[in-house]
Design a protein that fits this description.
By secondary structure, the protein is α/β, with parallel strands linked by helices. It has a single domain, classed as Rossmann fold, CATH 3.40.50. The protein has nine helices and nine strands. Helix 6 links the parallel strand 7 and strand 8. The protein is globular, with a radius of gyration of 18 Å.
Length: about 260
């Protein structure tokens, strides 16, 4: 199976993992819809591609869930359908739970969880009608366990697993696949753009991200796994082992995390 001529919609495509996926899938011959809030940046990404004529831009804000059904109509109508939806857009958080305002928690949940759910619900009927489709959700290793300073972020990613694991069972007989992707430390601006407890931008590069896997390498490793229809995917460095420690030795992991410096 190849991505040549497949219609793929990628959110969060203006930077980081989404941008890297755009370049890699464009090279593989896919026809892309790329989305984020920043049209100018999306235009730059499009112009950087080897086949820019195969890219359509749909600007959207995942926090504005009431607008997403019309955005889905726009995206679907451009190429006629969507084969793959990459729910990649999101935001992180860096603050102790006690210091995090409730509206910040709501913002993280609105973007990471409700935004992905709303967009999926808007695209899903057309996939069910065609009895074909693949929904990819960028979660995180934080979707499998939590650390200090990331309570809201981890909660939003845990919620994605509960929702999309359930959805996978409901759409299996419609030939629709669901893949949850759990990156470790990937070198992007996710920490810089993270929200602090009062809603201000963190504006600091975390050490994990600074020394993490380059986004283009991540994209190259991810795409073959999506092609094989893997249901849950872990890509990163040694931090990936924490997922297995959580599963088999949770008390040991908790003891280790209490001693680890997190940024």
């Amino acid at each position: 199976m190849s991505f040549n001529n497949k219609i793929i919609w990628i959110t969060g495509a203006s930077s980081g993992i989404g941008e890297a996926l755009t370049y890699e899938l464009n090279q593989q011959g896919a026809k892309l819809i790329i989305s984020s809030r920043r049209k100018e940046t999306l235009e730059q990404v499009k112009n950087n591609c080897s086949n820019p004529s195969d890219i359509h831009i749909v600007t959207l804000d995942l926090a504005k869930t009431d607008e997403l059904p019309s955005k889905a109509e726009e995206a679907i109508s451009h190429w006629g359908h969507v084969d793959y939806l990459f729910n990649n857009g999101g935001i992180s958080q860096r603050s102790n739970a006690i210091d995090t305002n409730l509206d910040v928690i709501r913002t993280v949940m609105e973007i990471n969880f409700f935004g992905s759910v709303a967009l999926t619900k808007a695209v899903l009927p057309s996939m069910i009608e065609r009895e074909s489709g693949h929904i990819v959700i960028t979660s995180s290793v934080m979707g499998k366990f939590g650390t200090r300073l990331r309570s809201s972020y981890a909660a939003s990613k845990h919620a994605l697993h509960g929702y999309f694991d359930s959805l996978r069972q409901e759409v299996y007989d419609k030939n629709i696949k669901i893949s949850l992707v759990c990156p470790g430390f990937i070198k992007t601006n996710v920490t810089k753009n993270a929200l602090e407890g009062d809603g201000s931008k963190h504006n600091k590069m975390g050490k994990g991200q600074e020394h993490g896997m380059p986004a283009d390498e991540f994209a190259r490793k991810l795409i073959p796994k999506i092609n094989r229809g893997k249901e849950e995917i872990y890509i990163g460095g040694s931090e990936i082992w924490a997922v297995y420690l959580k599963r088999f030795f949770p008390r040991l992991l908790n003891k280790m995390l209490r001693k680890v410096k997190v940024t």
